[in-house]
Design brief:
Layout (H helix, E strand, L loop, with lengths): L2 H5 L4 H11 L8 H8 L3 H14 L2 E3 L5 E3 L17
Antiparallel strand pairs: 1-2
Helix pairs in contact: 3-4
Amino acid sequence: MDAQVADRSLNERQRRMLNRLLDGFEGKLTSSKYAKLAKCSSDTALRDIRDLLERGLLSQNEGGGPEHEPPDRGRRLSGGAGRGG
């Protein structure tokens, strides 16, 4: 992982979305679903998703769309959690 990516904190939308995914999100996460749930533009959703993919917090399915792969369903992300803290 790029050191520059690892040093950045997750934004609030990303923390909320990851917590939602860890709490048992059903189905695949697409940029349009992300935008609707996070109440943001599709461009912002795509940027957030790309960042989460770079960090290894989301994985991409074979069809090209992002798909969540939770590392630990018991772990929730709190404010300021940048490097898994």
